Amino acid sequence: MTVIGLDDTDSRNRGMCTTYLAARLAERIRDAGGTVERLLLVRLNPAVKHKTRGNAALAIHTDFDADPAFELAREELASAAETDDPRTNPGLVVAPHGPDEAPDEIAEFARRAVRELLSRGEAERRIEAAGYRHAGWKNGRGKIGAVAAVGAHAAFSEWTYEHISYREPERWGTPREVNFDSAFAAADSGYPDVWDTVDRGTGEAVCVPHTPCPILHGIRGDDPEAVRRVSEGIDGEPVARTALFVTNQGTDAHLQDAALHEVEDDSAYRVTGTVASDPETRRGGHVFFTVTDGEAELQCAAFEPTKRFRDHVRNLRPGDRITACGEVTKGTLKLEKFAVRSLDATELVTPNCPDCGRSMKSAGAGQGYRCQRCGTDAAGKVERELDRELEIGWYEVPPEARRHIAKPLVRGDFDAPTHPEG
Ligand code: ATP
Q1: Cα 92 to ligand 1 centre (Å)
Q2: How many Å lie between the centroid of ligand 1 and the Cα of residue 123?
Q3: Residue 281: helix, strand or coil by DSSP?
Q4: pTM surpassing 0.85?
Q5: What percentage of the chain carries pLDDT values higher than 90?
Q6: Pick from 3, 284, 304, 278: which is nearest to 134 by CA?
Protein backbone atom coordinates (compact mmCIF):
# COMPACT_ATOMS: atom_id res chain seq x y z
CA MET A 1 0.00 0.00 0.00
CA THR A 2 0.97 3.60 -0.58
CA VAL A 3 -0.26 6.86 0.94
CA ILE A 4 0.12 10.03 -1.12
CA GLY A 5 -0.19 13.23 0.91
CA LEU A 6 -0.83 16.55 -0.88
CA ASP A 7 -1.38 20.09 0.23
CA ASP A 8 -1.40 23.73 -0.70
CA THR A 9 -2.19 23.58 -4.39
CA ASP A 10 -5.01 26.11 -4.22
CA SER A 11 -4.74 29.33 -6.00
CA ARG A 12 -7.26 32.10 -5.66
CA ASN A 13 -6.54 33.52 -9.09
CA ARG A 14 -6.56 30.17 -10.93
CA GLY A 15 -9.41 28.77 -8.89
CA MET A 16 -7.75 25.42 -8.27
CA CYS A 17 -8.55 23.36 -5.22
CA THR A 18 -6.62 20.50 -3.69
CA THR A 19 -9.63 18.15 -3.58
CA TYR A 20 -9.90 18.48 -7.36
CA LEU A 21 -6.24 17.78 -7.86
CA ALA A 22 -6.54 14.68 -5.64
CA ALA A 23 -9.59 13.46 -7.57
CA ARG A 24 -7.75 13.94 -10.87
CA LEU A 25 -4.64 12.18 -9.57
CA ALA A 26 -6.80 9.29 -8.33
CA GLU A 27 -8.20 8.98 -11.84
CA ARG A 28 -4.70 8.90 -13.33
CA ILE A 29 -3.72 6.15 -10.89
CA ARG A 30 -6.79 4.13 -11.91
CA ASP A 31 -6.01 4.71 -15.58
CA ALA A 32 -2.50 3.40 -14.94
CA GLY A 33 -3.92 0.18 -13.46
CA GLY A 34 -3.88 1.05 -9.75
CA THR A 35 -6.74 0.79 -7.27
CA VAL A 36 -7.68 3.75 -5.12
CA GLU A 37 -9.00 2.56 -1.81
CA ARG A 38 -9.84 5.90 -0.30
CA LEU A 39 -9.52 9.67 -0.71
CA LEU A 40 -9.00 11.39 2.62
CA LEU A 41 -9.84 15.07 3.14
CA VAL A 42 -8.30 16.27 6.38
CA ARG A 43 -9.08 19.66 7.86
CA LEU A 44 -6.06 20.91 9.80
CA ASN A 45 -5.86 23.63 12.43
CA PRO A 46 -8.38 26.29 11.39
CA ALA A 47 -6.27 28.95 13.15
CA VAL A 48 -3.47 28.71 10.54
CA LYS A 49 -3.26 32.18 9.03
CA HIS A 50 -1.71 31.35 5.67
CA LYS A 51 -4.51 28.94 4.73
CA THR A 52 -6.35 29.78 1.53
CA ARG A 53 -9.76 28.91 2.94
CA GLY A 54 -10.51 25.85 4.98
CA ASN A 55 -7.02 24.45 5.66
CA ALA A 56 -7.59 21.19 3.86
CA ALA A 57 -4.92 18.56 3.15
CA LEU A 58 -5.51 15.44 1.06
CA ALA A 59 -4.33 11.84 1.10
CA ILE A 60 -4.81 9.10 -1.47
CA HIS A 61 -4.70 5.49 -0.22
CA THR A 62 -3.75 3.18 -3.07
CA ASP A 63 -2.18 -0.16 -3.98
CA PHE A 64 -0.08 1.61 -6.64
CA ASP A 65 3.68 1.38 -5.95
CA ALA A 66 5.23 4.35 -4.18
CA ASP A 67 7.71 5.21 -6.96
CA PRO A 68 5.28 5.55 -9.89
CA ALA A 69 2.78 7.16 -7.51
CA PHE A 70 5.36 9.78 -6.62
CA GLU A 71 6.09 10.48 -10.29
CA LEU A 72 2.42 10.88 -11.23
CA ALA A 73 1.75 13.10 -8.22
CA ARG A 74 4.82 15.21 -8.93
CA GLU A 75 3.60 15.91 -12.47
CA GLU A 76 0.16 16.96 -11.21
CA LEU A 77 1.53 19.22 -8.47
CA ALA A 78 4.19 20.81 -10.68
CA SER A 79 1.50 22.27 -12.92
CA ALA A 80 -0.47 23.48 -9.88
CA ALA A 81 2.65 25.25 -8.65
CA GLU A 82 2.86 27.30 -11.84
CA THR A 83 0.98 30.19 -10.38
CA ASP A 84 2.13 33.55 -9.14
CA ASP A 85 -0.23 33.29 -6.20
CA PRO A 86 2.22 33.69 -3.28
CA ARG A 87 -0.11 31.61 -1.10
CA THR A 88 0.30 28.53 -3.27
CA ASN A 89 3.23 26.47 -1.94
CA PRO A 90 2.54 22.85 -2.87
CA GLY A 91 3.90 19.94 -0.89
CA LEU A 92 3.93 16.21 -1.69
CA VAL A 93 4.82 13.31 0.61
CA VAL A 94 4.60 9.66 -0.45
CA ALA A 95 4.70 6.89 2.18
CA PRO A 96 5.31 3.25 1.18
CA HIS A 97 2.91 1.79 3.75
CA GLY A 98 -0.77 1.36 4.48
CA PRO A 99 -2.85 4.22 5.90
CA ASP A 100 -2.86 2.73 9.41
CA GLU A 101 0.80 1.76 9.41
CA ALA A 102 2.23 5.25 9.79
CA PRO A 103 4.92 5.42 12.50
CA ASP A 104 3.79 6.93 15.82
CA GLU A 105 5.74 10.15 15.19
CA ILE A 106 3.86 10.74 11.94
CA ALA A 107 0.46 10.00 13.50
CA GLU A 108 1.33 12.32 16.39
CA PHE A 109 2.36 15.04 13.92
CA ALA A 110 -1.05 14.68 12.23
CA ARG A 111 -2.83 14.95 15.58
CA ARG A 112 -0.91 18.12 16.44
CA ALA A 113 -1.41 19.62 12.96
CA VAL A 114 -5.15 19.75 13.67
CA ARG A 115 -4.62 21.51 17.00
CA GLU A 116 -1.37 23.49 16.97
CA LEU A 117 0.84 25.58 14.70
CA LEU A 118 3.73 23.54 13.35
CA SER A 119 6.87 24.47 11.45
CA ARG A 120 8.13 23.43 8.05
CA GLY A 121 11.44 22.46 9.68
CA GLU A 122 9.75 19.94 11.95
CA ALA A 123 7.70 18.55 9.04
CA GLU A 124 10.87 18.07 7.00
CA ARG A 125 12.69 16.35 9.87
CA ARG A 126 9.81 13.93 10.37
CA ILE A 127 9.54 13.20 6.64
CA GLU A 128 13.28 12.46 6.46
CA ALA A 129 13.23 10.33 9.62
CA ALA A 130 10.36 8.24 8.21
CA GLY A 131 12.23 7.84 4.91
CA TYR A 132 9.35 9.15 2.78
CA ARG A 133 9.73 10.52 -0.74
CA HIS A 134 8.82 14.18 -0.83
CA ALA A 135 8.79 17.30 -2.95
CA GLY A 136 8.00 20.92 -2.30
CA TRP A 137 7.43 23.85 -4.62
CA LYS A 138 8.10 27.52 -3.88
CA ASN A 139 8.50 27.81 -0.11
CA GLY A 140 7.35 24.19 0.29
CA ARG A 141 5.02 24.94 3.19
CA GLY A 142 2.54 22.43 1.80
CA LYS A 143 4.75 19.64 3.16
CA ILE A 144 3.35 20.35 6.64
CA GLY A 145 -0.17 19.48 5.53
CA ALA A 146 1.02 16.71 3.18
CA VAL A 147 2.77 14.74 5.93
CA ALA A 148 -0.12 15.42 8.32
CA ALA A 149 -2.47 13.93 5.70
CA VAL A 150 -0.23 10.84 5.55
CA GLY A 151 -0.54 10.31 9.32
CA ALA A 152 -4.19 11.30 9.70
CA HIS A 153 -5.87 7.92 9.22
CA ALA A 154 -3.72 6.37 11.94
CA ALA A 155 -4.19 9.40 14.20
CA PHE A 156 -7.97 9.74 14.25
CA SER A 157 -10.84 7.31 14.51
CA GLU A 158 -13.91 9.41 13.76
CA TRP A 159 -14.67 10.01 10.08
CA THR A 160 -17.48 11.48 8.02
CA TYR A 161 -18.05 11.75 4.25
CA GLU A 162 -18.23 14.43 1.59
CA HIS A 163 -19.45 13.75 -1.92
CA ILE A 164 -18.11 16.47 -4.20
CA SER A 165 -19.43 17.22 -7.69
CA TYR A 166 -17.10 19.20 -9.95
CA ARG A 167 -17.97 21.63 -12.74
CA GLU A 168 -16.96 21.44 -16.37
CA PRO A 169 -13.65 23.33 -16.65
CA GLU A 170 -15.02 25.86 -19.16
CA ARG A 171 -17.57 26.99 -16.56
CA TRP A 172 -15.07 27.63 -13.76
CA GLY A 173 -15.32 31.18 -12.52
CA THR A 174 -18.83 31.70 -13.95
CA PRO A 175 -22.01 31.78 -11.79
CA ARG A 176 -23.13 28.29 -10.79
CA GLU A 177 -26.43 26.97 -12.09
CA VAL A 178 -28.03 24.98 -9.30
CA ASN A 179 -31.74 24.47 -8.78
CA PHE A 180 -32.17 25.63 -5.21
CA ASP A 181 -35.58 24.01 -4.69
CA SER A 182 -34.09 20.64 -5.59
CA ALA A 183 -31.13 21.32 -3.25
CA PHE A 184 -33.50 22.02 -0.34
CA ALA A 185 -35.67 18.99 -1.14
CA ALA A 186 -32.63 16.72 -1.44
CA ALA A 187 -31.20 18.14 1.81
CA ASP A 188 -34.49 17.42 3.62
CA SER A 189 -34.60 13.88 2.26
CA GLY A 190 -31.15 13.12 3.71
CA TYR A 191 -31.37 15.00 7.02
CA PRO A 192 -30.09 14.28 9.68
CA ASP A 193 -27.62 11.71 8.23
CA VAL A 194 -26.64 14.40 5.76
CA TRP A 195 -25.98 17.79 7.35
CA ASP A 196 -24.84 21.33 6.57
CA THR A 197 -26.27 21.09 3.06
CA VAL A 198 -28.50 24.14 3.45
CA ASP A 199 -29.17 26.78 6.08
CA ARG A 200 -32.90 26.64 6.75
CA GLY A 201 -32.71 29.88 8.72
CA THR A 202 -31.26 32.07 5.97
CA GLY A 203 -32.38 30.03 2.95
CA GLU A 204 -28.79 29.63 1.74
CA ALA A 205 -27.55 26.50 -0.03
CA VAL A 206 -24.39 26.06 2.05
CA CYS A 207 -23.26 23.15 -0.14
CA VAL A 208 -22.67 25.45 -3.12
CA PRO A 209 -19.44 27.47 -2.75
CA HIS A 210 -19.12 31.13 -3.72
CA THR A 211 -15.44 30.94 -4.73
CA PRO A 212 -14.22 30.46 -8.34
CA CYS A 213 -13.11 26.88 -7.52
CA PRO A 214 -14.12 23.81 -9.61
CA ILE A 215 -16.64 22.55 -7.02
CA LEU A 216 -20.33 22.66 -7.96
CA HIS A 217 -21.49 21.30 -4.60
CA GLY A 218 -20.19 19.25 -1.71
CA ILE A 219 -22.58 17.11 0.31
CA ARG A 220 -21.53 16.15 3.84
CA GLY A 221 -22.82 13.50 6.16
CA ASP A 222 -22.38 10.37 8.23
CA ASP A 223 -23.15 7.86 5.52
CA PRO A 224 -21.46 7.51 2.10
CA GLU A 225 -24.61 6.26 0.36
CA ALA A 226 -26.75 9.05 1.81
CA VAL A 227 -24.39 11.83 0.68
CA ARG A 228 -24.30 10.31 -2.81
CA ARG A 229 -28.09 10.14 -2.97
CA VAL A 230 -28.58 13.74 -1.85
CA SER A 231 -25.96 14.87 -4.34
CA GLU A 232 -27.72 13.07 -7.18
CA GLY A 233 -31.00 14.71 -6.16
CA ILE A 234 -29.70 18.22 -6.88
CA ASP A 235 -30.52 19.52 -10.36
CA GLY A 236 -28.29 21.97 -12.18
CA GLU A 237 -25.54 22.40 -14.75
CA PRO A 238 -23.67 19.29 -15.98
CA VAL A 239 -21.34 17.56 -13.53
CA ALA A 240 -17.90 16.83 -15.00
CA ARG A 241 -16.77 14.38 -12.31
CA THR A 242 -17.55 13.35 -8.74
CA ALA A 243 -15.47 12.05 -5.87
CA LEU A 244 -16.24 10.67 -2.43
CA PHE A 245 -13.95 11.81 0.38
CA VAL A 246 -13.54 10.35 3.84
CA THR A 247 -13.04 13.37 6.09
CA ASN A 248 -12.66 14.67 9.63
CA GLN A 249 -15.21 17.39 8.89
CA GLY A 250 -17.92 17.74 11.50
CA THR A 251 -15.94 15.89 14.19
CA ASP A 252 -14.58 18.65 16.51
CA ALA A 253 -11.14 17.03 16.13
CA HIS A 254 -9.59 20.47 16.63
CA LEU A 255 -10.93 21.02 20.17
CA GLN A 256 -8.71 20.43 23.21
CA ASP A 257 -10.11 20.30 26.74
CA ALA A 258 -8.36 22.91 28.82
CA ALA A 259 -8.59 25.05 31.96
CA LEU A 260 -8.80 28.78 31.26
CA HIS A 261 -5.19 29.48 32.34
CA GLU A 262 -3.91 26.87 29.85
CA VAL A 263 -5.44 28.54 26.80
CA GLU A 264 -3.02 29.88 24.16
CA ASP A 265 -3.50 31.72 20.89
CA ASP A 266 -3.92 29.82 17.59
CA SER A 267 -5.49 26.65 18.99
CA ALA A 268 -9.09 25.69 19.64
CA TYR A 269 -10.50 24.66 23.00
CA ARG A 270 -13.40 23.37 25.04
CA VAL A 271 -13.37 25.36 28.32
CA THR A 272 -15.78 25.56 31.23
CA GLY A 273 -16.38 28.61 33.40
CA THR A 274 -18.89 31.09 34.77
CA VAL A 275 -20.09 34.05 32.77
CA ALA A 276 -18.47 37.08 34.41
CA SER A 277 -19.83 40.02 32.40
CA ASP A 278 -23.04 40.95 30.65
CA PRO A 279 -22.77 40.17 26.91
CA GLU A 280 -22.10 43.41 25.08
CA THR A 281 -22.86 44.05 21.40
CA ARG A 282 -20.09 46.17 19.89
CA ARG A 283 -19.61 47.95 16.58
CA GLY A 284 -20.20 45.64 13.64
CA GLY A 285 -22.66 43.53 15.64
CA HIS A 286 -20.06 41.37 17.37
CA VAL A 287 -21.05 40.19 20.86
CA PHE A 288 -18.46 39.91 23.66
CA PHE A 289 -18.46 38.61 27.24
CA THR A 290 -15.96 37.09 29.64
CA VAL A 291 -15.90 33.76 31.45
CA THR A 292 -13.96 33.00 34.61
CA ASP A 293 -13.06 29.91 36.60
CA GLY A 294 -11.82 31.86 39.62
CA GLU A 295 -8.22 31.47 38.49
CA ALA A 296 -8.26 33.03 35.01
CA GLU A 297 -10.57 34.99 32.72
CA LEU A 298 -11.12 34.64 28.99
CA GLN A 299 -12.96 36.88 26.56
CA CYS A 300 -15.45 35.07 24.29
CA ALA A 301 -16.92 36.50 21.11
CA ALA A 302 -19.79 35.69 18.78
CA PHE A 303 -19.00 37.51 15.56
CA GLU A 304 -21.55 39.11 13.26
CA PRO A 305 -21.51 36.31 10.64
CA THR A 306 -22.79 33.89 13.30
CA LYS A 307 -26.14 35.76 12.94
CA ARG A 308 -28.95 34.28 15.05
CA PHE A 309 -26.48 32.44 17.31
CA ARG A 310 -25.73 35.86 18.81
CA ASP A 311 -29.24 36.01 20.28
CA HIS A 312 -28.44 32.97 22.43
CA VAL A 313 -25.17 34.57 23.48
CA ARG A 314 -26.94 37.84 24.36
CA ASN A 315 -29.26 35.83 26.62
CA LEU A 316 -26.37 34.77 28.86
CA ARG A 317 -26.06 36.45 32.27
CA PRO A 318 -23.28 36.73 34.80
CA GLY A 319 -23.44 33.68 37.05
CA ASP A 320 -24.42 31.24 34.27
CA ARG A 321 -22.12 28.24 34.01
CA ILE A 322 -21.13 27.33 30.48
CA THR A 323 -18.79 25.24 28.37
CA ALA A 324 -17.48 27.29 25.44
CA CYS A 325 -15.85 25.90 22.27
CA GLY A 326 -13.82 27.70 19.65
CA GLU A 327 -10.50 28.91 18.39
CA VAL A 328 -8.52 31.42 20.41
CA THR A 329 -6.92 34.31 18.55
CA LYS A 330 -5.45 37.38 20.21
CA GLY A 331 -6.74 36.23 23.57
CA THR A 332 -10.36 35.90 22.43
CA LEU A 333 -12.28 32.66 22.01
CA LYS A 334 -14.36 32.79 18.82
CA LEU A 335 -17.46 30.85 19.80
CA GLU A 336 -18.46 27.91 17.60
CA LYS A 337 -20.82 26.44 20.17
CA PHE A 338 -21.54 26.60 23.89
CA ALA A 339 -23.37 24.50 26.44
CA VAL A 340 -25.40 26.01 29.26
CA ARG A 341 -24.54 23.92 32.33
CA SER A 342 -26.57 25.94 34.85
CA LEU A 343 -28.55 29.14 34.62
CA ASP A 344 -28.56 31.87 37.17
CA ALA A 345 -32.35 31.82 37.59
CA THR A 346 -32.79 34.45 40.31
CA GLU A 347 -31.86 38.07 40.77
CA LEU A 348 -31.73 40.28 43.87
CA VAL A 349 -34.31 43.05 43.86
CA THR A 350 -35.64 45.70 46.27
CA PRO A 351 -38.46 44.10 48.30
CA ASN A 352 -42.13 45.07 48.01
CA CYS A 353 -44.17 45.94 51.08
CA PRO A 354 -46.13 42.86 52.29
CA ASP A 355 -49.09 45.11 53.23
CA CYS A 356 -49.51 47.58 50.33
CA GLY A 357 -47.40 45.89 47.65
CA ARG A 358 -45.42 49.03 46.81
CA SER A 359 -41.67 49.03 46.44
CA MET A 360 -39.86 49.71 49.71
CA LYS A 361 -37.18 52.37 50.02
CA SER A 362 -33.69 52.05 51.45
CA ALA A 363 -33.63 52.81 55.14
CA GLY A 364 -30.02 54.00 54.93
CA ALA A 365 -26.69 52.28 54.47
CA GLY A 366 -26.78 48.78 56.01
CA GLN A 367 -30.25 49.31 57.52
CA GLY A 368 -32.37 47.38 55.08
CA TYR A 369 -35.57 48.63 53.46
CA ARG A 370 -38.73 50.29 54.76
CA CYS A 371 -42.19 51.05 53.37
CA GLN A 372 -42.69 54.76 53.71
CA ARG A 373 -46.49 54.36 53.89
CA CYS A 374 -46.96 51.37 56.18
CA GLY A 375 -43.69 51.46 58.13
CA THR A 376 -42.99 47.76 57.46
CA ASP A 377 -39.36 46.85 57.04
CA ALA A 378 -37.13 44.20 55.44
CA ALA A 379 -33.54 43.22 56.21
CA GLY A 380 -32.22 43.47 52.65
CA LYS A 381 -32.83 42.70 48.96
CA VAL A 382 -34.88 39.63 48.13
CA GLU A 383 -34.49 36.99 45.42
CA ARG A 384 -36.79 37.07 42.40
CA GLU A 385 -37.21 34.26 39.87
CA LEU A 386 -35.97 35.22 36.42
CA ASP A 387 -37.62 34.21 33.21
CA ARG A 388 -34.70 32.82 31.18
CA GLU A 389 -34.85 32.36 27.41
CA LEU A 390 -31.99 29.87 27.44
CA GLU A 391 -32.28 26.22 28.37
CA ILE A 392 -29.71 23.77 29.63
CA GLY A 393 -27.70 22.28 26.76
CA TRP A 394 -25.72 23.03 23.62
CA TYR A 395 -26.25 25.94 21.19
CA GLU A 396 -24.32 26.27 17.92
CA VAL A 397 -23.66 28.70 15.07
CA PRO A 398 -25.86 28.22 11.98
CA PRO A 399 -24.60 25.99 9.12
CA GLU A 400 -23.57 29.02 7.08
CA ALA A 401 -21.12 30.14 9.76
CA ARG A 402 -19.88 26.66 10.65
CA ARG A 403 -16.20 25.73 10.54
CA HIS A 404 -15.62 22.66 8.35
CA ILE A 405 -14.19 20.74 11.28
CA ALA A 406 -16.84 21.78 13.84
CA LYS A 407 -19.28 19.06 14.82
CA PRO A 408 -22.90 19.94 14.11
CA LEU A 409 -25.18 19.23 17.08
CA VAL A 410 -27.47 17.14 14.89
CA ARG A 411 -24.70 14.50 14.76
CA GLY A 412 -25.48 13.73 18.40
CA ASP A 413 -23.44 12.15 21.18
CA PHE A 414 -23.08 15.37 23.18
CA ASP A 415 -22.94 15.45 26.97
CA ALA A 416 -26.11 17.55 27.38
CA PRO A 417 -29.37 18.22 25.50
CA THR A 418 -28.86 19.93 22.13
CA HIS A 419 -30.57 22.81 20.31
CA PRO A 420 -29.45 22.08 16.73
CA GLU A 421 -29.42 24.64 13.92
CA GLY A 422 -30.52 22.94 10.72
P1 ATP B 1 -8.61 25.10 0.64
O2 ATP B 1 -9.44 24.94 1.84
O3 ATP B 1 -9.19 25.99 -0.36
O4 ATP B 1 -8.13 23.76 0.14
P5 ATP B 1 -6.58 25.73 2.38
O6 ATP B 1 -7.28 26.62 3.31
O7 ATP B 1 -6.47 24.27 2.58
O8 ATP B 1 -7.25 25.90 1.03
P9 ATP B 1 -3.79 25.71 1.92
O10 ATP B 1 -3.53 26.32 0.60
O11 ATP B 1 -3.80 24.24 2.05
O12 ATP B 1 -5.13 26.35 2.38
O13 ATP B 1 -2.77 26.36 2.95
C14 ATP B 1 -2.57 25.89 4.26
C15 ATP B 1 -1.06 25.85 4.53
O16 ATP B 1 -0.85 25.74 5.92
C17 ATP B 1 -0.40 24.65 3.90
O18 ATP B 1 0.82 25.05 3.41
C19 ATP B 1 -0.19 23.69 5.06
O20 ATP B 1 0.94 22.87 4.90
C21 ATP B 1 -0.02 24.65 6.21
N22 ATP B 1 -0.47 24.10 7.48
C23 ATP B 1 -1.51 23.25 7.68
N24 ATP B 1 -1.64 22.95 8.98
C25 ATP B 1 -0.68 23.61 9.63
C26 ATP B 1 -0.30 23.70 11.01
N27 ATP B 1 -0.97 23.06 11.96
N28 ATP B 1 0.74 24.51 11.32
C29 ATP B 1 1.40 25.20 10.36
N30 ATP B 1 1.10 25.15 9.03
C31 ATP B 1 0.06 24.37 8.67
Answers
A1: 13
A2: 13
A3: strand
A4: yes
A5: 90
A6: 3
- CA-nearest residue for atom 27, ligand 1, is 113
**Atom 4, ligand 1: residue with shortest CA distance:** 56
**Residue ranges lining ligand 1, Cβ < 6 Å:** 7-8, 10, 17-18, 44-45, 48, 50-56, 89, 91, 113, 116-118, 141-142, 144-145
Q: How far is Cα 149 from Cα 56, in angstroms, rounded to an integer?
A: 9
> Residue 384 pairs with which residues in a beta bridge?
347
Q: Which residues contact 415 (CB under 8 A, 6 or more apart)?
A: 339
Q: At what angle do helices 120-130 and 142-155 cross, to 10 degrees?
A: 60
Q: What pLDDT does residue 246 have? A: 98
| The dihedral formed by the CA atoms of 151, 152, 156 and 157, expressed in degrees to the nearest 10 | -110
21 CA distance to ligand 1 middle (Å): 15
The Cα–Cα gap between 344 and 334 comes to 23
- The answer on pLDDT for 270 being more than 90 is yes
Structural domains in the chain, CATH included, are 2-155 (3.30.70.2200), 160-247 (3.90.600.20), 255-345+387-419 (2.40.50.1010), 346-385 (no CATH)
CA-proximal residue: ligand 1, atom 10 (nearest): 8
Q: Ligand 1 centroid vs 45 CA: distance in angstroms?
A: 8
Supply φ then ψ for residue 344, to 5 degrees: -75, 100
